[in-house]
Amino acid sequence: MNQRVTATIMAALAALLTTASMAAVAAPEGMTFPEGTATPSETCGACHKAIYREFAFGFGSDIHYQPTTIPSKPGEKLVMPAKVAATATAHAFAGVEPYPIHAREAEEEGKSCNVCHFPEPFAIPDINTPEMVKPKARPKGQEAGGLTCASCHLTPEGKIRGPYEVKAPHETVADPAVQTAAMCAYCHSMGKRVIGKQTQTFLEWRDDFNKPGLGRQQCQDCHMPRTMRKVAEDFDNPERAVARHLWTGGRSQQRLASALSLTVSQPDAGKADLAFHVINIGAGHSVPTGSNRRAIYLNVEVATRKGKPVATKEWMFAPWYGPRPDDRKFLEEDKKRPDAIAASQADAQGPHETNIRAGEERILTWLPKLKPGEYTVKARLIYDLNRYNPRSFTADQTEINRSILTLKVK
Hints:
Layout: H1 3-26, H2 41-45, H3 49-57, E1 68-70, E2 73-78, H4 98-108, H5 149-153, E3 160-162, E4 172-174, H6 201-210, H7 219-223, E5 226-229, E6 240-243, H8 253-257, E7 260-265, E8 274-280, E9 295-304, E10 309-317, H9 331-334, H10 340-347, E11 361-366, E12 373-384, E13 397-409
Parallel strand pairs: 3-4
Antiparallel strand pairs: 1-2, 5-6, 7-8, 8-11, 9-10, 9-12, 12-13
């Protein structure tokens, strides 16, 4: 984190803590939330200081916003507004992130399609619901506030839910489901389970990870690691195991590096045959997951002992846009669709590898044309936040793993 960003965060925190001290003393009994889920998160941060610090500034994580571009204008960068910390969590900047805003205008004619960024209060669904629907959106005039603390914690009855029974200036309700993956289901899944499709993260966790018994972790166990502290610092409540509100993901090197392993092997000694084992060892869902913009590239280079490249190969792993593989053969058909721009954008990239499911070992083979001799095979896994950028744009790409093999060909 550079000094300018650190100074900005510290100044903001100082102002917040001053406001919080005053608010904690003056907090009224029977506090209500007339603005519903449009209630600014700063209101909650007045009492829940550490949690707000994590939410708004990513404090305690390695999150950093990475710019992207508009596909139709490859030289034009989309960057976060200056008032938003570059280290903020994805939930904190859901209302101002420029790419979804641009995509909604360019692809959906301004329709309020990304309702997960501004939901009304909702009840936590049953974890086994076959088909998850989108939550109800706030009115158009209340969209700009984006995802707030109240978006997750405010119940339809106007109470604040959490994992514990607590005394607070507002009505509270203890709801154990807030610590389960069901809490994330409405916004991180869409429709029925379709293997390979985008927006399936919760369903990938439930059907590929949890039900088969690959692990007992809920979403929060990886994305919201716990710490011992007070929920509200200036109130008389005990220290408890409290989740850090960070949700590290695609903008976190730490989270990406723990997801996939990569091994290169030579199945037959003396032959140029190569096998690349990409193994989902650390994610409780497919990788990449979520938006069809996300991609993983497996880049391979074979070089002589002197370092001269003699062969290269690349694979791309990405979610499909819809319930079928992305393919150029559908481009003419796409023109007749109401979502023609988004569908065509995906199909134009042609067939590719599907994302790698929880616990899966994907083996890809390659037989480069090599003369007898000794070579070095270098393989790298690269995560791309937006595969629709020109390939020359690398500002939103992160290398997450690499493997090297000495290859002898007879």
